[in-house]
Amino acid sequence: MAVVYRVLRPVNWLRRRLRSSEIAFILLAVVVGAGAGLLSIVQGAIARTLQHLLYALPPGARLSSAASLSTVSLLALPIGGAFLGGFSLLVGARRRHMVDAVEANALHGGRMGVSDSLVVSGQTVISNGFGASVGLEAAYAQLGAAVGSILGGFLNLRRSDLRNLVGAGAGAAIGAAFGAPLAGAFYGFEIVIGAYTPSAIAPVFAAALTASLVVQTFNVEPYIITITANPVTETHHYIIYAALGAVCAGVGILLMRLVTLVEQGVRRTPLPDWGRPIVGGFLLIPLAMISPQVMSSGHGALHADLAVGSTIGFIAIIFLAKCSASVVSLGFGFRGGLFFASLFLGTLLGHLFADGLAWVANRAVIDDRDAALVGMAALAVAVVGGPMTMAMLILEATHDFSLTGAVLAAALVASTLVRELFGYSFSTWRFHIRGEAIKSARDVGWMKSLTAGRMMRRDVHATPAAMTIAEFRRRFPLGSASRVVLTEEGDGYAGIGLPARAFAEGVDPAEPIGSLAVHPEVALTPDMDMSATMRLFDATGADELAVVGHDGAILGLLSEKFVRRRYAEELEKAQRELYGEK
Q1: How far apart are CA 134 and CA 343, in angstroms?
Q2: Is 580 domain-assigned?
Q3: Which ranges of the chain have pLDDT less than 50?
Q4: Exposed/middle/buried for 415, CB within 10 Å: 0-12, 13-18, 19+?
Q5: Is residue 227 situated within a structural domain?
Q6: Residues 206, 261 share a domain
Q7: CB-neighbour burial class of residue 201 (10 A; exposed 0-12, middle 13-18, buried 19+)
Q8: Structure confidence at residue 105 (pLDDT)
Q9: What's the rounded Cα separation, in Å, for the pair 278 and 403?
């Protein structure tokens, strides 16, 4: 025991320091950022190495920027689907639910599993490495967030600190991938934490900066687009770009719905889970034969298209082919995200928008490259969310504040329209399809953990509803109890008896007390969370309701007053944590 105590003593000291010192917590975030940066490098290197080996790419080339690929090499797509299906079958991924960073922060207080995170990362790297039209951001963010969650869990951090550390890890991983620490930090705030909290500002930025420095140290080429933009100085440009944001919102909603429709349609077929990526791989071959730009995340193609420029016909074909490839890849079971793909699709949509305006006006109205960058940001916001994340990405890419203002205008329009017309980002939409009512990473887990079963009191004074009112008066004189749960034959729920009503004038003492029961058809179930509980109280206008099990057994009694008080206490606690008050 003495040896164990000596080992745990420094760990316990560190826990106390992290709970009491903001500087110590920032230093911990730096460690998380460094880990997230290193893991991003490793995952990107594995995926790129697979692509170079499978498609015989020249050194430094990206798959989506290749001029052409042989038909034989494209067989790597269904082979990759088979490899992915076998991997998922081996680790049992199809039989269990895996928690990502957004869900962890929204429902589980930032807690993530090691094995789940490794499986998600492995599936994403396989999908991207074999050329499927998915991005690596899911793998980057998953392992970056997992570093924060595992380290914070080991140190037994508070719920709010653990959530901030998960956001810091995910944001650091994205910042490392793009070489854009500001964009990474805002990704952590907007996508993973769900709020700009004072307690999270310093640690999240510290983690993102550290991850970007790690990437620079290893001379890894980031995903960021380095391009000189034309200054946007005219007021009407902002209005035009806001219209582009509206177009991007519509395209983003359509894209998310198409992915879901294809996925649901494929699930209704007799294809086994492991066989779906194989079929998807074969379906991707003709799309890849149109152009390799539809493959992988599209990063190389994005660079090439912005640098060289293409005809409107070619851009339209690539746009439709890339949309189709992304829908097929995700719908048929390849793992990955739409973030990187939406960046590339956004540049194409911006080009099409600018060229369409030029055709209508018979002259250039806005610059093609500026429109491509604005479209890139707006479509990514429509699909993923995070208007400030994308504004910072464009600012770090172009160093152009004028264009960043136009990007922000388009991004806010896209974000507003998607929230109004659709209500979800791609990640939260998939949670909705699965049955989870999550619209952001805002912490609602504490509300779900406070169930009626946990809040109820068990002294229900169960009384047969057939008991006469006279007997009820003798057993429960005024002042002895405010509420009594009535039961019918077999101990089933029959409503709530009020002693005050039993002693009212004009009541026949020979009648059964069940004739005075209130809310006989309404009861809470023990698994109802606080939100559902309060909605039922509001709908019935009841002061107290019984908690009845799914088998009909009466478990307890819960008052609206107590639920409201517990809600206020938890809300105040969350507010203190929001501002970093210990």
Answers
A1: 12
A2: no
A3: 1-5, 7
A4: buried
A5: no
A6: no
A7: middle
A8: 82
A9: 43
